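WARN no homologs supplied; continuing
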Amino acid sequence: MYIIKNAWTNIIRGKGRNILIGFIIVAVTISTCIAITINKSATKLVNKYKNNNPIEVSFRMNMMNLKDASDEDKNNFDTLSEEDIKKYGDSSLVKDYYYTNEVSLSSNSIEAVSYDNVLNNNEDNKKPDNMPDDKMNVGDFRLTGYSDPSYIDNFINGTNKIKEGKMFDKNNKDKVIVISEELAEENNLKVGDKVSFYNNDDEDTTYEFEIVGIYENTSEDEDNFMGMNAMNSSNQIYTNITSVNEINQNNTNKMKSSLSAKFYLNSNSDLKKFEKEVRKKGLSDYYEIMTNEEEALESLKPVSNLKNFSKTFLIIILIVGSIILSVINLINIRERKYEIGVLRAIGMSKLKVSLQLICEIFIVAMISLIIGTTVGKVTSQPITNKILANEISSYQNEENNITQNFGSSDFKRPGFDENTMNRKQNVEYVDSLKVNVDIYTVLQLFLVSILLTTISSFISIMLALRYEPNKILQNRWWNGKDIRIKRCRFYIWWL
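OK structure emitted
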C-alpha cells in the first residue's frame, strides 16, 4: 500500500514528465486500436469471401519449358485430353469441374459480322495500320464447346442473354449452336435453321449445325477484334464440347490444342493436396497449376492492402513507442538518482524500489489506456473509411491509366485476354469495412500496454538497481561543495 501511495505522490510531483509519458501511451494506444480493428475486420472479410467464393483451378502449358525441352520430350509430350480432365475431376477434393475446347471455323453458308462493318458503326475504332489484309489463316467464327453451359462466363455475368430459343443442355451431344443476335440479323437466321462450317486446314470437310438459341450481347466494348472477324464477339458461337472435339480430333498439331478445364475444390486449403494428386495421376510437368485467386479477390484488393498496412503500421508503432518510452524513463531515472539513493539509504530494498518505479509507469499506462481506447473506439471507423477510400482511389487511378495507355485497339495483340481486361476495368471494389472495438480488442490493448511498460521500464530499472546509495549521496555532497566553492571564488573576485 505504501508503494502505491508513494508512487501516486511521485506521479503528481512529476506531472509534467508523466503527462508526456501518458500522451505517448495514448497515441500508441489509439494507433494500436485502429491497426488491430482494421486487421481483424479485414481478415474476417477476406476469409468470409474466400469461403463463399471457391477459387478456380486450371492448368496452363508452360511454353518456355517446353521450348527448352529435348526433341524426344517434345515428341513424347501429350497435351491435355478429355480423359485426363475426367480423371483429375474424379477426386474427393473436387466439388465440381467443367472443360472447354475452341476451334476457328469458316462458312460458305453464312457471312460473318465483319470488322469493317463494326468500324463503320463506331468511328472511334480504327484498324491498326500494321494489320495484314489477309488477317492470318484463321476462320471467321469462334466455336467454343462447353461440357456444362451453366459455366459460360458471359452468361453468368449478364453480358450475354438468351433472346430467342434456349441454351443447349449439357447432356446434348448433337451438333447444336447458340449464335449472337447480330450474326442472326446479318444472315436472316432464326431458331431451327441449319448452317455449315469448315476448318481452314481442311476445307473439304464440312460440319452442319442447328441453331437452338440466339443471344443478345449487352457489352459496349467493340474494339477488341484485332482486325479479325473471329475476334468479333458477334461471331462468337457456343456449342457442346462433343461437337468441338469431333472437329479437332484429326488435328495433329499438339501446340494448337485449346482444351482447357477448371476445377472447383471443396476447400481452398486443398490446393496443395490437389496439385500432388494430379501430378501423381500423370499431369505433365510442362503444365503449371494456376488459380484465379487474385482475380477472385480483385474487389478486395484495397481491403487486403489495408490489412497488410495495418500489420506493418502496428509493428512500427510498437517499436517506436518502446524506444521513446525507454529513453524518457531512462532520463527520468537519472534525474531521480538522489531520490533512489535516499530510499536505498533508509533501508528500502532494491525490489521495493523497482516495484515503485513499475507501479508509477503502470498507473500512468492504465489511465492512458482508458483514454486511448475511448478515443480509438470513436475514431477507428472514420479513419478506416478515409484510408480505404484513398486505397480505392489509388487503384481506380491505376486502372484508368492502364485503360488510357493500353485500352485502344492499336495495342490489341494475339493472346490479349479481353475478359480479364473488362473485369479489371469494371471491378467494383469493396468500399466499406465495419470495424468494432470489442472485449478482445480491449484485452489486446491491455496486453500491448503491459508489453510497452515492461520494455520501457526494464532498462531504467536495471540502471536504478546498479546505483549504490553511499556513492549517490557522496556525489551529491561533493557536487554541492563544488557549488559552494565556486560561489566563494566569485565573491572574492567581485570584491
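The beta strands are 56-61, 94-105, 141-146, 160-165, 176-180, 194-199, 202-217, 236-240, 260-265, 287-291.
OK
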